[in-house]
Amino acid sequence: VKIIHAEGPTRTAIDWSEKVKFLVDEVNPDAKKVILVMDNLNTHNTASLYKAFPPEEARRIARKLEIHYTPKHGSWLDIAEIGINIMTRECLNRRIPDIETLRAELKAWNEAYNSAPTEINWQFSNETSRVKLKSLYPDIDRNQELRDQLRQKKSLIK
């Protein structure tokens, strides 16, 4: 897993497309698939490639991508958030005066991290999700009871 940061003054569809093309052609030219984990910003999709490049080029790039979006209301669950937290603590825990310094700091941090990446011990599973996220899941048994009671009342009324 490589971590690559892309910073800039704007976040347009063209900006995103150029960065993705760089990842596909420069960073991972021999990869059959490039896996992206990213947020749901409206420019972060393959349609943006068609705004930046001719259709054949956009299609070529899109075919090499495997995109995974972080959940809109649960991004704290994602490994990407853990990586961002580590990078923030180790690299961005102070005021950075300008974009040139930011780029230099992120480049140095990326090189150090990517030369000896840390494994993430992901412990969240489907089995534990209903326990840990109880408020987000319906109580199926309770709902079934309520439906049964409602059906019983309706049958008594008839």
UniProtKB/TrEMBL annotation:
Domain of life (superkingdom): Bacteria
Record GO terms (molecular function): endonuclease activity
Domain Tc1-like transposase DDE: 20-103
Keyword terms, alphabetized: Endonuclease, Hydrolase, Nuclease
Record protein name field: DDE superfamily endonuclease
Annotated source species: Succinivibrio dextrinosolvens
